[in-house]
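DM from R.C. (forwarded with permission)

"hey, sorry to bug you on a friday — could you get me a structure for this? deadline for the figure draft is monday and I only need the backbone to look sensible"
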Amino acid sequence: MADNSSEIKYLTPIAVETKKKKYCRFKKSGIKYIDYKDADFLLKFINEQGRILPRRLTGTSQKFQKKVAQAVKRARHLSLLPYVADLLK
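My reply, with the result:
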C-alpha cells in the first residue's frame, strides 16, 4: 500500500516543450548580400522599439549578424528605418 501511494498519476500527459533547432536563414537560402534598401526584410531583425535582435534569438550566424547590423545601421542613416520607435510592428 505504501509503494502505490508514491506513484503520481496525471489525467492528461505533461506537455514537454521541444525547442526547434535554430538555423541561419541566409546560409539555408544562399543569400550572400543583405540589401540595406529593403526595409521590409530588415524589420524581421529589429524589435518593436527598433533595437537589433541578437543572434541567440534569430539564429543568424556571426558572419551574417554583422552584415545585418551594418545594413540596419545604413538603413537608419538613410531614414528607411527609425532609430527609436513605439510599437514599430
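R.C.: lifesaver. The chain has five helices and no strands.
me: no worries. Residues 35 and 41 are 9 Å apart (CA to CA).
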